[in-house]
Amino acid sequence: MIETSRLSQNGFNFLTIRVEEPLTGDLVGCGMALLNNYPEFGRGIPVLWDLRASDLSRYTTRDMEETNAYLAQYPGRLNVKSASLLLDEGALFLARLWSVYRIEQFPQERKAFLKFEDAVAWLAAD
C-alpha cells in the first residue's frame, strides 16, 4: 500500500508518502507518480518518505539506479530535500548509501531519520 498526503507543521508545507510494501525502484517510481498528483511536487516541495513499514532488504543498487532514472523525469525536483523515515539503524545504513549513490546523476539532498520530528525539522531548515 502507498498513501500520500500534504501536511503543514508550523507553517511549513511538505508532502508525505507512506510505503507499506517491499521497496523497489519501480515502487519508488509509482510513488513519485502519485506524488505528481500534487502540483507542488514538480515545483520542488520537500517530501518525507515514511518507510517504517516497508521491507528494504531487497532494495539494490539497481533499484537505486531506477530511482535516479525516475527522479530525472521531474527536473523541478533538482536540489530539493527528500527525507526518509526509517524503523531502525540497519535501514539507516541503507538510506545513507542511497543518499550518496550516483548523486551526480540527480543532485538532491537526501537524509534519513528515525524520528518524524527530526525529519520535519531538517526538511524545514534553510
Q: How would you summarize what this structure contains?
A:
The protein has 126 residues and is an alpha/beta fold.
Our Rg estimate from Cα atoms comes to 13 Å
Strand content: 15-25%
**Count of beta strands:** 5
Largest sheet: 5 strands, mixed
Distance between the termini: 32 Å
- Main sheet: strand order: 1-2-3-4-5
The average pLDDT score comes to: 87
Please work out how many helical segments DSSP would assign: 5
What share of the residues lie within helices?
25-40%
Q: Give the overall form.
A: globular
List the uncertain runs. none
The succession of helices and strands, N to C, reads EEHHEHEHEH
Structural class by helix and strand composition: alpha/beta
Task: Characterise the protein shown here.
The radius of gyration is 13 Å and the shape is globular. α1 runs parallel beside α3. The chain has 126 residues and is α/β, with parallel strands linked by helices. The protein contains five helices and five strands; from the N terminus they run ββααβαβαβα. The N and C termini lie far apart (32 Å). 37% of the residues lie in helices and 24% in strands. A hairpin with a 2-residue loop joins β1 and β2. The model has no long low-confidence stretch (mean pLDDT 87). A five-stranded mixed beta sheet has the order 1-2-3-4-5, sandwiched between helices.
